[in-house]
Design goal:
Layout: H1 2-22, H2 48-74, H3 82-109, E1 112-113, E2 117-118, H4 142-160, H5 170-193, H6 198-202, H7 210-228, H8 244-263, H9 271-299, H10 304-318, H11 327-345, H12 348-351, H13 359-377, H14 395-426, H15 433-438, H16 440-445, H17 457-461, H18 466-481
Antiparallel strand pairs: 1-2
Helix pairs in contact: 1-3, 2-3, 2-4, 2-8, 3-4, 3-5, 4-5, 4-7, 5-7, 5-14, 7-13, 7-14, 8-9, 8-10, 9-10, 9-11, 10-11, 10-13, 11-13, 13-14
Length: 482
Protein backbone atom coordinates (compact mmCIF):
# COMPACT_ATOMS: atom_id res chain seq x y z
CA UNK A 1 0.00 0.00 0.00
CA UNK A 2 2.93 2.33 0.79
CA UNK A 3 4.34 1.67 -2.68
CA UNK A 4 1.04 2.54 -4.32
CA UNK A 5 0.81 5.71 -2.22
CA UNK A 6 4.34 6.68 -3.31
CA UNK A 7 3.49 6.03 -6.97
CA UNK A 8 0.32 8.11 -6.78
CA UNK A 9 2.15 10.87 -4.92
CA UNK A 10 4.73 10.98 -7.71
CA UNK A 11 1.94 11.32 -10.27
CA UNK A 12 0.43 14.16 -8.23
CA UNK A 13 3.77 15.99 -8.16
CA UNK A 14 4.09 15.63 -11.93
CA UNK A 15 0.55 16.91 -12.37
CA UNK A 16 1.26 19.91 -10.13
CA UNK A 17 4.41 20.73 -12.10
CA UNK A 18 2.45 20.47 -15.31
CA UNK A 19 -0.19 22.90 -14.07
CA UNK A 20 2.50 25.30 -12.85
CA UNK A 21 4.24 25.27 -16.21
CA UNK A 22 0.94 25.63 -18.03
CA UNK A 23 0.27 28.86 -16.16
CA UNK A 24 3.49 30.47 -17.41
CA UNK A 25 3.34 32.55 -20.58
CA UNK A 26 3.28 30.42 -23.71
CA UNK A 27 6.29 30.67 -26.02
CA UNK A 28 5.89 31.57 -29.65
CA UNK A 29 4.84 28.47 -31.62
CA UNK A 30 7.77 26.59 -33.10
CA UNK A 31 7.84 26.74 -36.86
CA UNK A 32 6.61 23.50 -38.47
CA UNK A 33 9.41 21.35 -39.82
CA UNK A 34 7.65 19.73 -42.75
CA UNK A 35 7.38 21.40 -46.14
CA UNK A 36 3.62 20.87 -46.20
CA UNK A 37 3.29 22.81 -42.96
CA UNK A 38 5.42 25.80 -43.96
CA UNK A 39 2.52 28.20 -44.60
CA UNK A 40 2.29 31.05 -42.07
CA UNK A 41 -0.38 30.66 -39.38
CA UNK A 42 -2.18 33.73 -40.70
CA UNK A 43 -3.04 31.82 -43.88
CA UNK A 44 -5.10 29.28 -41.93
CA UNK A 45 -8.76 29.93 -41.36
CA UNK A 46 -11.19 27.97 -39.20
CA UNK A 47 -13.96 26.21 -41.09
CA UNK A 48 -17.11 25.75 -39.02
CA UNK A 49 -18.19 22.60 -40.85
CA UNK A 50 -14.81 20.93 -40.40
CA UNK A 51 -14.74 21.92 -36.75
CA UNK A 52 -18.22 20.54 -36.11
CA UNK A 53 -17.28 17.27 -37.82
CA UNK A 54 -14.08 16.91 -35.80
CA UNK A 55 -15.80 17.58 -32.46
CA UNK A 56 -18.47 15.04 -33.41
CA UNK A 57 -15.81 12.52 -34.43
CA UNK A 58 -14.02 13.06 -31.12
CA UNK A 59 -17.22 12.24 -29.24
CA UNK A 60 -17.74 9.13 -31.40
CA UNK A 61 -14.23 7.86 -30.65
CA UNK A 62 -14.68 8.49 -26.92
CA UNK A 63 -17.89 6.45 -27.07
CA UNK A 64 -15.86 3.56 -28.46
CA UNK A 65 -14.08 3.19 -25.10
CA UNK A 66 -17.15 3.54 -22.91
CA UNK A 67 -19.73 2.28 -23.48
CA UNK A 68 -18.44 0.44 -26.60
CA UNK A 69 -15.32 -1.42 -25.48
CA UNK A 70 -16.51 -1.56 -21.87
CA UNK A 71 -19.63 -3.51 -22.88
CA UNK A 72 -17.79 -5.61 -25.46
CA UNK A 73 -15.22 -6.77 -22.90
CA UNK A 74 -17.57 -6.68 -19.91
CA UNK A 75 -19.92 -9.24 -21.45
CA UNK A 76 -17.11 -11.66 -22.30
CA UNK A 77 -15.73 -12.09 -18.79
CA UNK A 78 -17.27 -14.20 -16.06
CA UNK A 79 -19.98 -12.65 -13.93
CA UNK A 80 -17.70 -12.16 -10.91
CA UNK A 81 -15.39 -9.90 -12.96
CA UNK A 82 -17.95 -7.85 -14.91
CA UNK A 83 -17.75 -4.63 -12.89
CA UNK A 84 -13.96 -4.71 -12.66
CA UNK A 85 -13.73 -5.02 -16.45
CA UNK A 86 -16.15 -2.15 -17.00
CA UNK A 87 -14.23 -0.08 -14.46
CA UNK A 88 -10.96 -0.44 -16.36
CA UNK A 89 -12.37 1.04 -19.57
CA UNK A 90 -14.21 3.75 -17.66
CA UNK A 91 -11.34 4.92 -15.47
CA UNK A 92 -8.91 4.99 -18.40
CA UNK A 93 -11.04 7.81 -19.85
CA UNK A 94 -10.29 9.85 -16.74
CA UNK A 95 -6.65 8.86 -16.30
CA UNK A 96 -5.50 9.39 -19.89
CA UNK A 97 -7.54 12.59 -20.30
CA UNK A 98 -5.48 14.12 -17.51
CA UNK A 99 -2.19 12.63 -18.73
CA UNK A 100 -2.83 13.91 -22.27
CA UNK A 101 -3.47 17.46 -21.08
CA UNK A 102 -0.45 17.56 -18.76
CA UNK A 103 2.26 15.98 -20.90
CA UNK A 104 0.97 13.29 -23.28
CA UNK A 105 -0.03 15.55 -26.17
CA UNK A 106 3.23 17.47 -26.01
CA UNK A 107 5.27 14.24 -26.15
CA UNK A 108 3.21 12.87 -29.03
CA UNK A 109 2.70 15.95 -31.20
CA UNK A 110 4.94 18.66 -29.76
CA UNK A 111 7.93 20.15 -31.60
CA UNK A 112 10.05 17.31 -32.97
CA UNK A 113 13.15 16.06 -31.17
CA UNK A 114 15.18 14.01 -33.64
CA UNK A 115 12.19 12.24 -35.17
CA UNK A 116 11.74 10.21 -31.98
CA UNK A 117 9.51 12.23 -29.66
CA UNK A 118 7.88 15.60 -29.23
CA UNK A 119 9.31 18.16 -26.86
CA UNK A 120 7.74 19.48 -23.68
CA UNK A 121 7.08 22.95 -25.06
CA UNK A 122 3.34 22.22 -25.02
CA UNK A 123 3.21 20.75 -21.52
CA UNK A 124 -0.08 21.61 -19.84
CA UNK A 125 -1.33 22.58 -23.33
CA UNK A 126 0.37 25.95 -23.22
CA UNK A 127 0.43 27.31 -26.75
CA UNK A 128 -2.34 24.90 -27.81
CA UNK A 129 -5.22 27.26 -28.38
CA UNK A 130 -8.29 27.98 -30.46
CA UNK A 131 -6.40 28.92 -33.61
CA UNK A 132 -5.34 26.40 -36.25
CA UNK A 133 -1.81 25.00 -36.15
CA UNK A 134 -0.86 24.47 -39.75
CA UNK A 135 1.17 21.28 -39.27
CA UNK A 136 -1.90 19.43 -37.99
CA UNK A 137 -5.09 21.47 -38.19
CA UNK A 138 -5.35 23.80 -41.14
CA UNK A 139 -9.10 24.44 -40.86
CA UNK A 140 -9.91 23.48 -37.25
CA UNK A 141 -8.76 24.82 -33.87
CA UNK A 142 -5.55 23.29 -32.58
CA UNK A 143 -7.50 22.27 -29.48
CA UNK A 144 -9.98 20.34 -31.64
CA UNK A 145 -7.13 18.33 -33.14
CA UNK A 146 -5.72 17.75 -29.67
CA UNK A 147 -9.09 16.49 -28.42
CA UNK A 148 -9.49 14.13 -31.37
CA UNK A 149 -6.06 12.64 -30.75
CA UNK A 150 -6.83 12.37 -27.01
CA UNK A 151 -9.58 9.88 -27.77
CA UNK A 152 -7.11 7.63 -29.61
CA UNK A 153 -4.74 7.83 -26.66
CA UNK A 154 -7.61 6.77 -24.38
CA UNK A 155 -8.81 3.71 -26.26
CA UNK A 156 -5.39 2.21 -27.03
CA UNK A 157 -4.39 1.13 -23.48
CA UNK A 158 -8.03 0.17 -22.88
CA UNK A 159 -7.70 -2.44 -25.64
CA UNK A 160 -4.83 -4.11 -23.75
CA UNK A 161 -7.01 -4.76 -20.69
CA UNK A 162 -8.71 -7.65 -22.48
CA UNK A 163 -5.48 -9.67 -22.35
CA UNK A 164 -5.05 -9.52 -18.56
CA UNK A 165 -8.75 -9.51 -17.67
CA UNK A 166 -9.82 -11.32 -14.48
CA UNK A 167 -6.41 -11.41 -12.78
CA UNK A 168 -4.60 -8.05 -12.57
CA UNK A 169 -4.58 -5.84 -9.48
CA UNK A 170 -6.36 -2.54 -9.92
CA UNK A 171 -3.41 -0.61 -8.49
CA UNK A 172 -1.07 -2.34 -10.96
CA UNK A 173 -3.48 -1.58 -13.80
CA UNK A 174 -3.42 2.15 -12.98
CA UNK A 175 0.36 2.44 -12.81
CA UNK A 176 0.86 0.25 -15.90
CA UNK A 177 -1.62 2.30 -17.94
CA UNK A 178 0.00 5.62 -17.05
CA UNK A 179 3.51 4.37 -17.80
CA UNK A 180 2.51 2.58 -21.01
CA UNK A 181 0.71 5.63 -22.39
CA UNK A 182 3.73 7.83 -21.69
CA UNK A 183 6.56 5.50 -22.70
CA UNK A 184 5.01 3.47 -25.52
CA UNK A 185 2.00 5.25 -27.01
CA UNK A 186 3.24 8.85 -27.02
CA UNK A 187 6.57 8.19 -28.76
CA UNK A 188 4.94 5.84 -31.28
CA UNK A 189 2.26 8.40 -32.12
CA UNK A 190 5.05 10.91 -32.77
CA UNK A 191 6.92 8.43 -35.01
CA UNK A 192 3.90 7.86 -37.22
CA UNK A 193 1.83 11.07 -37.05
CA UNK A 194 3.96 13.75 -35.42
CA UNK A 195 5.42 16.51 -37.56
CA UNK A 196 9.00 15.28 -38.11
CA UNK A 197 8.39 11.71 -36.88
CA UNK A 198 10.83 9.27 -38.49
CA UNK A 199 8.24 6.78 -39.75
CA UNK A 200 6.15 9.60 -41.16
CA UNK A 201 9.23 10.97 -42.95
CA UNK A 202 9.99 7.45 -44.19
CA UNK A 203 6.60 7.43 -45.93
CA UNK A 204 4.76 4.89 -43.76
CA UNK A 205 0.98 5.10 -44.23
CA UNK A 206 -1.30 4.79 -41.22
CA UNK A 207 -4.49 6.73 -41.76
CA UNK A 208 -6.14 6.13 -38.39
CA UNK A 209 -4.02 3.89 -36.18
CA UNK A 210 -3.09 0.44 -37.49
CA UNK A 211 0.40 0.68 -36.01
CA UNK A 212 -0.14 3.34 -33.35
CA UNK A 213 -3.31 1.85 -31.88
CA UNK A 214 -3.87 -1.77 -32.89
CA UNK A 215 -0.44 -3.32 -33.39
CA UNK A 216 0.97 -1.57 -30.32
CA UNK A 217 -1.93 -2.73 -28.12
CA UNK A 218 -2.06 -6.23 -29.61
CA UNK A 219 1.65 -6.91 -29.21
CA UNK A 220 1.70 -5.39 -25.73
CA UNK A 221 -1.28 -7.58 -24.86
CA UNK A 222 0.72 -10.67 -25.78
CA UNK A 223 3.55 -9.59 -23.48
CA UNK A 224 1.05 -8.96 -20.67
CA UNK A 225 -0.58 -12.37 -21.10
CA UNK A 226 2.79 -14.13 -20.98
CA UNK A 227 4.22 -12.18 -18.03
CA UNK A 228 1.07 -12.41 -15.88
CA UNK A 229 0.47 -16.07 -16.68
CA UNK A 230 -2.78 -17.95 -17.10
CA UNK A 231 -5.94 -17.43 -15.10
CA UNK A 232 -6.47 -19.84 -12.25
CA UNK A 233 -8.22 -22.89 -13.69
CA UNK A 234 -7.60 -21.90 -17.31
CA UNK A 235 -7.93 -24.92 -19.56
CA UNK A 236 -9.62 -26.96 -16.83
CA UNK A 237 -12.65 -24.89 -15.80
CA UNK A 238 -15.34 -23.36 -18.03
CA UNK A 239 -14.80 -19.64 -18.61
CA UNK A 240 -17.64 -18.74 -20.94
CA UNK A 241 -18.83 -15.16 -21.45
CA UNK A 242 -21.47 -14.30 -18.87
CA UNK A 243 -23.54 -11.87 -21.00
CA UNK A 244 -23.30 -12.15 -24.78
CA UNK A 245 -26.09 -9.60 -25.43
CA UNK A 246 -23.88 -7.05 -23.64
CA UNK A 247 -20.96 -8.01 -25.87
CA UNK A 248 -23.00 -7.65 -29.07
CA UNK A 249 -24.25 -4.22 -27.97
CA UNK A 250 -20.64 -3.24 -27.34
CA UNK A 251 -19.57 -4.46 -30.78
CA UNK A 252 -22.39 -2.49 -32.41
CA UNK A 253 -21.33 0.66 -30.55
CA UNK A 254 -17.73 0.08 -31.63
CA UNK A 255 -18.86 -0.22 -35.26
CA UNK A 256 -20.83 3.01 -34.92
CA UNK A 257 -18.05 4.91 -33.18
CA UNK A 258 -15.45 3.69 -35.66
CA UNK A 259 -16.82 6.07 -38.27
CA UNK A 260 -15.45 8.89 -36.14
CA UNK A 261 -12.23 6.95 -35.68
CA UNK A 262 -11.55 6.48 -39.41
CA UNK A 263 -13.61 9.08 -41.28
CA UNK A 264 -12.67 11.68 -38.68
CA UNK A 265 -9.00 11.09 -39.47
CA UNK A 266 -9.53 13.00 -42.71
CA UNK A 267 -9.56 16.04 -40.37
CA UNK A 268 -12.06 17.73 -42.67
CA UNK A 269 -15.68 17.20 -43.69
CA UNK A 270 -14.80 16.33 -47.28
CA UNK A 271 -14.79 13.61 -49.91
CA UNK A 272 -11.92 11.75 -48.24
CA UNK A 273 -13.96 11.46 -45.04
CA UNK A 274 -16.84 9.97 -47.06
CA UNK A 275 -14.47 7.52 -48.74
CA UNK A 276 -13.00 6.43 -45.40
CA UNK A 277 -16.53 6.07 -43.98
CA UNK A 278 -17.50 3.77 -46.86
CA UNK A 279 -14.31 1.70 -46.61
CA UNK A 280 -14.83 1.29 -42.86
CA UNK A 281 -18.39 0.01 -43.17
CA UNK A 282 -17.54 -2.29 -46.08
CA UNK A 283 -14.61 -3.91 -44.30
CA UNK A 284 -16.57 -4.43 -41.07
CA UNK A 285 -19.42 -6.09 -42.94
CA UNK A 286 -17.20 -8.38 -45.03
CA UNK A 287 -15.12 -9.37 -41.99
CA UNK A 288 -18.21 -10.27 -39.96
CA UNK A 289 -19.27 -12.55 -42.81
CA UNK A 290 -15.75 -13.88 -43.29
CA UNK A 291 -15.42 -14.87 -39.62
CA UNK A 292 -18.96 -16.28 -39.51
CA UNK A 293 -18.58 -18.50 -42.58
CA UNK A 294 -15.10 -19.67 -41.56
CA UNK A 295 -16.42 -20.66 -38.13
CA UNK A 296 -19.48 -22.27 -39.69
CA UNK A 297 -17.35 -24.44 -41.94
CA UNK A 298 -14.89 -25.47 -39.23
CA UNK A 299 -17.20 -25.88 -36.22
CA UNK A 300 -20.53 -26.63 -37.80
CA UNK A 301 -22.43 -23.59 -36.52
CA UNK A 302 -22.05 -19.81 -36.67
CA UNK A 303 -21.91 -18.05 -33.30
CA UNK A 304 -23.08 -14.61 -32.27
CA UNK A 305 -19.77 -13.94 -30.51
CA UNK A 306 -17.95 -14.91 -33.70
CA UNK A 307 -19.94 -12.51 -35.87
CA UNK A 308 -19.37 -9.65 -33.40
CA UNK A 309 -15.65 -10.43 -33.14
CA UNK A 310 -15.41 -10.61 -36.92
CA UNK A 311 -16.88 -7.14 -37.35
CA UNK A 312 -14.34 -5.74 -34.88
CA UNK A 313 -11.52 -7.57 -36.71
CA UNK A 314 -12.58 -5.92 -39.96
CA UNK A 315 -12.68 -2.51 -38.33
CA UNK A 316 -9.19 -3.08 -36.96
CA UNK A 317 -7.78 -4.19 -40.32
CA UNK A 318 -9.24 -1.32 -42.34
CA UNK A 319 -8.11 1.36 -39.89
CA UNK A 320 -4.65 2.06 -41.40
CA UNK A 321 -5.95 1.73 -44.97
CA UNK A 322 -9.31 3.48 -44.67
CA UNK A 323 -8.15 6.77 -46.18
CA UNK A 324 -6.11 5.18 -48.96
CA UNK A 325 -8.29 2.41 -50.48
CA UNK A 326 -11.58 2.11 -52.35
CA UNK A 327 -14.61 -0.02 -51.42
CA UNK A 328 -13.58 -3.15 -53.33
CA UNK A 329 -10.15 -3.18 -51.71
CA UNK A 330 -11.84 -2.64 -48.34
CA UNK A 331 -14.10 -5.61 -48.99
CA UNK A 332 -11.10 -7.86 -49.67
CA UNK A 333 -9.16 -6.55 -46.66
CA UNK A 334 -12.16 -7.18 -44.40
CA UNK A 335 -12.97 -10.66 -45.68
CA UNK A 336 -9.38 -11.82 -45.22
CA UNK A 337 -9.26 -10.22 -41.77
CA UNK A 338 -12.33 -12.16 -40.64
CA UNK A 339 -10.90 -15.54 -41.59
CA UNK A 340 -7.34 -14.67 -40.52
CA UNK A 341 -8.25 -13.33 -37.07
CA UNK A 342 -10.58 -16.27 -36.40
CA UNK A 343 -7.69 -18.64 -37.09
CA UNK A 344 -5.29 -16.57 -34.98
CA UNK A 345 -7.63 -16.59 -31.98
CA UNK A 346 -7.80 -20.38 -32.13
CA UNK A 347 -4.02 -20.64 -31.91
CA UNK A 348 -3.69 -19.34 -28.34
CA UNK A 349 -4.60 -22.67 -26.72
CA UNK A 350 -2.00 -24.44 -28.87
CA UNK A 351 0.66 -21.83 -28.14
CA UNK A 352 -0.10 -21.91 -24.42
CA UNK A 353 -0.82 -18.28 -23.51
CA UNK A 354 -4.00 -16.96 -21.90
CA UNK A 355 -5.19 -13.90 -23.82
CA UNK A 356 -8.50 -13.63 -21.99
CA UNK A 357 -10.49 -11.69 -24.60
CA UNK A 358 -8.48 -12.32 -27.80
CA UNK A 359 -6.73 -8.96 -28.02
CA UNK A 360 -3.71 -10.53 -29.73
CA UNK A 361 -5.72 -12.39 -32.35
CA UNK A 362 -7.99 -9.47 -33.23
CA UNK A 363 -5.88 -6.35 -32.73
CA UNK A 364 -2.35 -7.69 -33.06
CA UNK A 365 -2.97 -9.91 -36.07
CA UNK A 366 -5.72 -7.73 -37.56
CA UNK A 367 -3.63 -4.59 -37.18
CA UNK A 368 -0.60 -6.24 -38.76
CA UNK A 369 -2.63 -7.46 -41.73
CA UNK A 370 -4.19 -4.03 -42.14
CA UNK A 371 -0.83 -2.22 -42.10
CA UNK A 372 0.62 -4.60 -44.69
CA UNK A 373 -2.57 -4.55 -46.77
CA UNK A 374 -2.21 -0.77 -46.96
CA UNK A 375 1.10 -1.40 -48.72
CA UNK A 376 -0.76 -3.63 -51.18
CA UNK A 377 -3.99 -1.76 -51.89
CA UNK A 378 -3.20 1.96 -51.30
CA UNK A 379 -3.94 4.17 -54.29
CA UNK A 380 -3.19 7.82 -54.95
CA UNK A 381 -6.43 7.90 -56.92
CA UNK A 382 -8.19 7.72 -53.55
CA UNK A 383 -5.85 10.04 -51.64
CA UNK A 384 -3.26 12.13 -53.44
CA UNK A 385 -1.48 12.76 -50.15
CA UNK A 386 -0.82 9.02 -49.76
CA UNK A 387 1.04 6.65 -52.07
CA UNK A 388 0.39 3.79 -54.45
CA UNK A 389 0.78 0.28 -53.07
CA UNK A 390 2.19 -2.88 -54.64
CA UNK A 391 -0.95 -3.60 -56.67
CA UNK A 392 -0.74 -0.11 -58.16
CA UNK A 393 2.90 -0.34 -59.18
CA UNK A 394 4.81 0.69 -56.05
CA UNK A 395 6.48 -2.31 -54.40
CA UNK A 396 8.50 -0.01 -52.17
CA UNK A 397 5.42 0.97 -50.17
CA UNK A 398 4.96 -2.59 -48.92
CA UNK A 399 8.58 -2.57 -47.75
CA UNK A 400 7.99 0.70 -45.91
CA UNK A 401 4.88 -0.70 -44.25
CA UNK A 402 6.84 -3.76 -43.11
CA UNK A 403 9.48 -1.51 -41.52
CA UNK A 404 6.74 0.36 -39.65
CA UNK A 405 5.23 -2.91 -38.41
CA UNK A 406 8.56 -4.29 -37.19
CA UNK A 407 9.49 -1.00 -35.52
CA UNK A 408 6.16 -1.01 -33.68
CA UNK A 409 6.70 -4.61 -32.59
CA UNK A 410 10.15 -3.81 -31.22
CA UNK A 411 9.08 -0.71 -29.30
CA UNK A 412 5.95 -2.31 -27.81
CA UNK A 413 7.50 -5.64 -26.83
CA UNK A 414 10.61 -4.29 -25.14
CA UNK A 415 9.07 -1.36 -23.29
CA UNK A 416 5.92 -3.23 -22.24
CA UNK A 417 8.08 -5.96 -20.70
CA UNK A 418 10.17 -3.36 -18.85
CA UNK A 419 7.06 -1.58 -17.56
CA UNK A 420 5.52 -4.83 -16.31
CA UNK A 421 8.69 -5.74 -14.42
CA UNK A 422 8.84 -2.30 -12.81
CA UNK A 423 5.19 -2.45 -11.79
CA UNK A 424 5.59 -5.97 -10.43
CA UNK A 425 8.58 -4.87 -8.35
CA UNK A 426 6.69 -1.91 -6.88
CA UNK A 427 3.00 -2.65 -6.39
CA UNK A 428 2.78 -6.24 -7.69
CA UNK A 429 0.94 -7.30 -10.85
CA UNK A 430 -1.45 -10.06 -9.93
CA UNK A 431 -4.16 -10.51 -7.33
CA UNK A 432 -3.86 -13.28 -4.74
CA UNK A 433 -5.32 -16.69 -5.61
CA UNK A 434 -8.26 -16.32 -3.22
CA UNK A 435 -9.03 -12.88 -4.64
CA UNK A 436 -9.04 -14.28 -8.16
CA UNK A 437 -11.40 -17.10 -7.16
CA UNK A 438 -13.75 -14.63 -5.45
CA UNK A 439 -13.61 -12.35 -8.47
CA UNK A 440 -12.18 -8.90 -9.01
CA UNK A 441 -15.54 -7.21 -8.43
CA UNK A 442 -15.46 -8.20 -4.77
CA UNK A 443 -11.72 -8.36 -4.12
CA UNK A 444 -10.80 -5.09 -5.86
CA UNK A 445 -13.96 -2.99 -5.55
CA UNK A 446 -16.16 -4.58 -2.84
CA UNK A 447 -19.12 -4.69 -5.23
CA UNK A 448 -21.07 -7.19 -7.31
CA UNK A 449 -22.47 -6.62 -10.77
CA UNK A 450 -25.68 -8.54 -10.14
CA UNK A 451 -27.72 -9.33 -7.04
CA UNK A 452 -30.48 -11.60 -8.29
CA UNK A 453 -33.73 -11.61 -6.35
CA UNK A 454 -32.57 -8.84 -4.04
CA UNK A 455 -30.11 -11.09 -2.23
CA UNK A 456 -27.59 -9.63 0.18
CA UNK A 457 -23.82 -10.00 0.24
CA UNK A 458 -24.08 -12.25 3.28
CA UNK A 459 -25.97 -14.81 1.20
CA UNK A 460 -22.94 -15.15 -1.07
CA UNK A 461 -20.53 -15.76 1.82
CA UNK A 462 -22.71 -18.04 3.98
CA UNK A 463 -22.60 -21.08 1.70
CA UNK A 464 -20.03 -23.83 1.28
CA UNK A 465 -17.57 -24.54 -1.47
CA UNK A 466 -14.48 -22.86 -2.88
CA UNK A 467 -16.30 -19.75 -4.10
CA UNK A 468 -17.89 -18.97 -0.72
CA UNK A 469 -14.64 -19.73 1.10
CA UNK A 470 -12.70 -17.42 -1.18
CA UNK A 471 -15.18 -14.61 -0.61
CA UNK A 472 -15.01 -15.10 3.15
CA UNK A 473 -11.22 -14.93 2.95
CA UNK A 474 -11.45 -11.74 0.90
CA UNK A 475 -13.87 -10.22 3.42
CA UNK A 476 -11.56 -11.13 6.32
CA UNK A 477 -8.59 -9.58 4.52
CA UNK A 478 -10.54 -6.38 3.95
CA UNK A 479 -11.53 -6.18 7.64
CA UNK A 480 -7.88 -6.74 8.68
CA UNK A 481 -6.72 -3.98 6.32
CA UNK A 482 -9.11 -1.52 7.96
Amino acid sequence: MRRLTLALATMLVLATLGVAVAQTPAPAPTAPTSAAAAAPPAAAKIDKGDTAWMLTSSALVLMMTAPGLALFYGGMVRQKNALATLMQSFIIMALISVQWVLWGYSLAFGPDKGGIIGGLEWIGLRGVGAQPYDAYSKTIPHQAFMLFQMMFAIITPALITGAFAERKKFSAFLVFTLLWATIVYDPLAHWVWGDGGWLKNLGALDFAGGTVVHISSGVSALVCAIVLGKRKGYGHQPMQPHNLPMTVMGAALLWFGWFGFNAGSALEANGLAASAFLATNTAAASAALGWMFTEWMTRGKPTVLGAASGAVAGLVAITPASGFVGPMSALIIGAIAGALCYSACNLKSKLGYDDSLDVVGVHGVGGTWGALATGLFASKAINEAGADGLFFGNAGQLRTQLIAVLATYALAVVLTWVILKVVDATVGLRVADEDEVAGLDLSQHSETAYVFGGGSYSEFTSGSGAFAEAMRATEAKARAAH
